[in-house]
Model the fold of this input.
Amino acid sequence: MTGRDVRQEQRKPKTVQTALIWIVLLGLVACAEAPVEKRPTIFWPEPPDPPKITFVQNLAEPKDVGVQPSWFKKVIRFIFGEKDPPHLIRPSGIAVDEEGGVYIADSGLQVVHFFNEKRHEYWQYYQLPPPYERLQNPIGVAVDGEKRVYVCDTELNRVFVFSPKGDSVRVIGRDGEMQRISGIAIDRSRERLYVVDTMGHQVIIYNLAGEKKGTLGKRGTGPGELNFPTYAAVDGVGRLYISDSLNFRVQIFGPDGVFLSQVGSLGSTLGQFSRPKGVAVDRANHLYVVDTLYDTVQIFDSSGELLLHFGKSGVEPGFFWLPSGIAVDRQGRIYVSDSYNQRVQVFQLLEGQDLPPDKAS
Done:
């Protein structure tokens, strides 16, 4: 046997060995796949009342909307210990679009997460133009009719606007114009942007091009006055709902900025608040209010009548730990930022079990 023949014979076991290693690795990677999460069946209100809302799922990382790493990434991650996939750290404001997209401001990871379960998509918004570089403390998020994304950064004290693909479009705000911003809402029909200035005890009004058009509110406790407001929402007819947190109420204004009414007061019973934050309005003009300290969501009609509540303190599905933001989509899905449980919980208003119609709509 020649030297060349010997070398060829020596290569065969190595080739077989390499193939066996890859087979074993792929088997291990396949075995390491996370098991399918079994979603509990939870309803509100509790029996004997008919169920109206059910828990659907948690959103915390890309796999929750069916995004899986490629075969190659699985192998690389197994061999080299690639870092874990992105995970919500401190979710706050939430926005939804008409195509199943969910936008979650995360002050812990300093990004806005985008999830779409229908399309199995996930990505992030965070890169900013000079001199800002990247988001620092995103709290509020909103989406306009063109799916441009508006983000309130409370550290940089600006509103940053992104294209649907994540490119920077514009920066809204000037030095001295805002004291410390938080929530944000868009009136699409009037192309109006509402920015909640928490430390300024006001709401600043812009058009969608970023031109300032006025302000609403001043510090105080009377109708139309604000005390550390946090979040905002706009309903289908242009009414503005402001979470007036340290006045322990939600105030409702007309599209012209005129005070209309308020919902809630300081107290420890249902229909009252301890620390209202996230607000949302559904297609029937029901008002959803997150109470951070009570770890619950209360649902009202716009006359202030309590219709339903769900959630309580804890870590299991349907329980909250300092919730903050909330959004409701056109299909009646309710998204709640469960901040210290590092997730957004998704609930569904059950078909055929609609809440009573809003007498004030």
Summary: Residues 3-31 form the longest helix (29 residues). The mean pLDDT is 88. The helical segments are 3-31, 71-80. Residues 232 and 242 are 5 Å apart (CA to CA).
